[in-house]
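go over whats below:
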Amino acid sequence: MSTSHHRARARASAALLLATTAVLVTACGPGGTAEGGAAGGRPAATASATPVAFTVTPGDASTDVRLDAPVAVAVSGGRLDEVTVTAADGSALPGAVDPASGTWTSSGPLTAGTRYAVHAVATDGAGAHVVHDSALTTLTPVATAFPAVSPLDGATVGVGMPVIVTLDEPVADDRRAAVEENLRVTTSPAPVEGSWSWRSDTKVEFRPREYWPARTDVHLDVDLGDVEVSPGVWGTTRDIDFTVGSAMVSTVDIAAHTLTVTRDGEVLRTIPVTLGQSGSGGRYVTRSGTKVVMSLEESRQMDAETTGVSKDDPDYYNVAVKYAMRLTNSGEFLHAAPWSVASQGRANVSHGCTGMSTEDARWVFEHSKVGDVVQYVGSERGLEDGNGFTAWNTGWEEWTAGSALS
């Protein structure tokens, strides 16, 4: 075969190879299909991938962010993979992605006066990772409302003990429901029906419908960190755990001059006592009603001046007593009264307290705890609302009516 013939065949093969390559590029190029070539045989132009766009709320460099404002991160043009919202101390704000919307939303309260760094990672349509960083700073409250709680954490109390939350700043009327929603009481081993009731603009109390079941563990979650209790005033967060001990429920019969002590339904002892005397305008008559032991003091100095009796009054007294158990704010106690033993069980000669022998008072003291119930019957003088732990003197319907959620 001649040299010229070989060159002709080589040129033909090269032309065929170029034609085949052109078809392959057209068929397999980005965005193309075998039927998708442009007119004139040129490859079709292809659109670039949609860029990822982040939407962060509150926006970057936001300041004075409210503590109840959720942080939200969403993306378009990609898939959100990771979000962290971190304070300067390294603590991370909890949150999760909603599967339906693909948006990450925080689920915990923000801390006052804190800068948070928001870091988000997404994947675009080409599989590349895209990062977004921003920051926000929360407001500094005008004031903070601290919740004092009774009983104290770790206490063992009686079945009549209410849960009392007292804030050191007033709660606006239209914020009471928000406060109450964030005061959560849980019990074990079984749930207990109960309700909060507002006693003032700073105090709210919780009691069960009936006395606490004996030997119940109670947990109080005070979750007010993201609650604005009044304009510019925000709450704080606390956790309290206490235990209800044995059911000590005693009865004082004022007319019979007796104190009957029961534990878990069993009568332990009936004790002769003396109570408030008549006369003097009735100011010393012991009140009827359900009272709750507020405190126990092995020794207490009782000065009548603290109850409004002046030192020049013939009824003035100032005496040290043993085994004092407070029942009212106004000054009614169970206590030892060795000076009136002759009248105990026979006559009422005290200034309103429940007096008994030193031996009996020691025994009652040793068997008592804060929150124990003492029911007084037989007096025409009733116990005033708020004069001690008086929750049990209010009917259930009236009590629940004091809830901002009722």
Remarks:
- The chain is about 10% helix and 40% strand.
- The helical segments are 3-28, 176-181, 358-366, 396-401.
